[in-house]
From TrEMBL:
This is Glutamine-dependent NAD(+) synthetase. Its EC number is 6.3.5.1. GO terms for biological process: NAD+ biosynthetic process. PANTHER family: GLUTAMINE-DEPENDENT NAD(+) SYNTHETASE, NH 3 /GLUTAMINE-DEPENDENT NAD + SYNTHETASE. It comes from the Bacteria. The active site is at E41, K112, C155. It comes from Humisphaera borealis. One of its GO terms (cellular component) is cytoplasm. SUPFAM superfamilies: Adenine nucleotide alpha hydrolases-like (SSF52402), Carbon-nitrogen hydrolase (SSF56317). Pathway: Cofactor biosynthesis; NAD(+) biosynthesis; NAD(+) from deamido-NAD(+) (L-Gln route): step 1/1. Catalyzes the ATP-dependent amidation of deamido-NAD to form NAD. Uses L-glutamine as a nitrogen source. Belongs to the NAD synthetase family. It holds the Pfam family NAD_synthase.
């Protein structure tokens, strides 16, 4: 059967634009001779639509778009994602749905069973799980080879394999159920966001599911950035032996046409059945203490490298994810260009490189703002970076502004020794200048803070935290260095000055200051951060792994105490299994000490 996997980049809420995109892909699928076209999860709305789903008109508009699309799809079966109303007055008001469009009609509607409500997912807030009779999620389609029974599933429905996702399983298994009533092919419409190492895990998971039931899987993922999430595409077709037979583009829209061999069931009515021990008895489930970090995006230990070792392919994937997330955030919010402060350090250098790749260097404005503490090499490195990347570059000294602040405050501060207040005034002077440039010239201001410093609060509110998007706020410092080296390697020359990579990290807020005056080496900080935030380990476990006790306790205190800063930070692009932000909701005024 010839299937078109329509890997689109929808914009959340742009129902008209998304409808047009569907029509374009359907036209191309027809031209390629497809017999079935499949779109991602909630494809007419864009994923995740969040509280737009609470607006009656939004759901009405999406249902009208579904009817309109159906009217234009004669001659090709199309599976499309949308939000449907729950006809039952009990439960949440909506279903996360896919529809089969056939002969100008909505031929059938199918609802998601497993609703992810962990990490960045919050589907139980809106949706009622669908389907009690698994036959409702079977559809018959006809290809040149005959008639086939397709099982319809939506993203999380497929993420329930007891061998691979051992921490917390759902009690229901919609895939096993579909197979037990005769599905010959599984279609999975997805919106599965990028996380470092996740695609390898997906391939393992999908292959295991395909092998278990001996049936092919067609997985169609959304692509593109929507706020903090970056969807990587990477749609795939897996045959019934678990072999990968077709794969879509990573980080770009794609129309993947695949010939899928659909093995006929010899005895279509014979149930495949569940394993005897499924679902596992509650006593066999992990103890309550294992709740921490469960199903963040999946088991962190299976998908992540230790923070000190990254494969070249992983670096390439993270780099591309950041470029796509940055480009889509800026364009989908209506900006055309960006501005950022260039300190000569590695964080602003990497952010500038990502921006140059996302928009072209002519759309990027870099501003060096030396203070009385800035070293010559910092200004030189900032200038070299701008030259290598081809950015627009300005130098705006902050000496006078900073001095004006100090003299303005001299009366109130009389008799008090200079401290971090004066240091922060430098960062804030830069923030004011950069926001003025953003206001006047309509460039979106990018913040440059990395995950390590955001974790411990090593950043100034309304200073270097000023900006609309925190591009690398989910990238630990050790990975910032790795990505910078990777970028230079990929370009075959020194784009980011080597001295920015090699220099000792410093905020240059006072003479001879270095980050390590206040923090442990970043390798140590990132090791603790990974275990505490991504793996949800407590201090005792982390210390038992060989980290210094006092350092662990101090870093954990700093991480917890800095929640107030992160709550005010710009949204950042998620690339690890646990980013600060939407997927990690911690109280601010709290006193729990782990
Ligand atoms: N719980 C809470 N809820 C809400 N607000 C709270 C708060 N606790 C403090 N605050 C407020 O926050 C203020 C403290 O925060 P803030 O003004 O940011 O200042 P603060 O965190 O004291 O200082 C900034 C730190 O970041 C370092 N830094 C700055 C700039 C760049 C870099 C770098 O290398 O990238 C590092 C700098 O060396 C210093 O250690 C308090 O004065 C108070 O107004
Ligand atoms: N002299 C400067 N000129 C322009 N921007 C600056 C300057 N100093 C700091 N900034 C801005 O503030 C951000 C925080 O910089 P800072 O040097 O304090 O810490 P950092 O986290 O080590 O960052 P970087 O590695 O980019 O230096 C920088 O990334 C940059 O955007
Ligand atoms: N949209 C979804 O159901 C996403 C959940 C799924 N486990 C994923 O990332 O990929």
């Amino acid at each position: 059967m010839r299937i078109a996997l329509c890997q689109i980049n929808p914009t959340v809420g742009d129902i008209a634009g998304n409808l047009t995109k569907h029509l374009e892909f359907i036209a191309a699928a027809r031209k390629a001779g497809a017999e079935l076209a499949v779109f991602p999860e909630l494809s007419l709305l864009g994923y995740p639509p969040k509280d737009l789903l609470l607006k009656r008109s939004f759901v009405d508009d999406s249902l009208a778009a579904l009817e309109e699309l159906a009217g234009q799809t004669r001659g090709l079966d199309v599976i499309v994602g949308y939000a449907d109303r729950n006809a039952n007055p009990v439960g949440r008001p909506l279903h996360n749905a896919v529809a089969l469009l056939r002969d100008g009609q909505v031929a059938s509607r199918h609802f998601k069973t497993l609703l992810p409500t962990y990490d960045v997912f919050d589907e139980s807030r809106y949706f009622e799980p669908g389907r009690r009779d698994e036959r409702e999620n079977l559809v018959e389609v006809t290809s040149a080879e005959g008639r086939h029974i397709i099982g319809m599933s939506i993203c999380e429905d497929l993420w329930n394999d007891e061998q691979l996702i051992a921490r917390r399983l759902y009690h229901e298994n919609p895939i096993a159920d579909l197979m037990s009533v005769g599905a010959e092919l599984l279609v999975n419409a997805s919106a599965s966001p990028f996380v470092l190492g996740k695609h390898a895990f997906r391939l393992e998971l999908f292959a295991a599911q395909a092998r278990r039931f001996g049936k092919p899987i067609v997985y169609v993922n959304q692509v593109g950035g929507n706020d903090e999430l970056v969807f990587d595409g990477n749609s795939v077709v897996i045959d019934g032996s678990g072999k990968l037979i077709a794969t879509g583009k990573a980080f770009g829209e794609d129309l993947l046409i695949a010939e899928v061999g659909i093995p006929k069931l010899l005895k279509p009515t014979e149930p495949i059945g569940m394993p005897a021990d499924y679902p596992p008895p509650l006593s066999a489930m992990p103890a309550a203490s294992a709740y921490a970090g469960e199903r963040t995006d999946m088991r962190a230990d299976r998908m992540l490298s230790a923070p000190d070792s990254y494969e070249e392919a992983d670096l390439e994937a993270v780099f591309k994810a950041l470029v796509l997330g940055l480009r889509d955030y800026v364009h989908k919010t209506g900006f055309k260009s960006v501005v950022l402060g260039l300190s000569g350090g590695i964080d602003s250098a990497l952010t500038a490189a990502l921006a140059a790749e996302a928009f072209g260097p002519e759309k990027v404005v870099g501003v060096a703002m030396p203070s009385k503490f800035s070293s010559d090499h910092s200004i030189g490195d900032a200038r070299d970076l701008a030259k290598n990347l081809g950015l627009n570059f300005h130098t705006i000294p902050i000496k006078d502004v900073h001095a004006a602040f100090e003299s303005t405050l001299a009366g109130v501060f009389k008799g008090l020794a200079p401290d971090v207040t004066e240091e922060n005034l430098q960062a804030r002077s830069r923030g004011v200048i950069l926001m003025a440039i953003s206001n006047k010239l309509n460039h979106l201001l990018l913040t440059t803070g990395n995950k390590s410093e955001l974790a411990v609060g090593y950043c100034t509110l309304y200073g270097d935290m000023c900006g609309g998007l925190a591009v690398i706020s989910d990238v630990p410092k050790t990975l910032v260095w790795e990505l910078s080296r990777y970028y230079n390697r990929s370009k075959g020359r020194e784009m980011i000055p080597q001295s920015s990579i090699d220099k000792v990290p410093s905020a240059e807020l006072r003479p001879n200051q270095t980050d390590q005056d206040s923090l442990p080496p970043y390798e140590v900080l990132d090791g603790i951060l990974f275990r505490y935030v991504e793996e949800e380990k407590g201090p005792r476990q982390i210390i038992a792994e060989g980290f210094d006790e006092a350092t662990v306790n101090r870093m954990i205190r700093l991480i917890d105490r800095s929640e107030y800063k992160r709550r005010q930070a710009a949204p950042g692009l998620k690339v690890t299994s646990r980013a600060f932000g939407f997927g990690r909701r911690m109280p601010i005024a709290q006193r729990y000490s782990p």
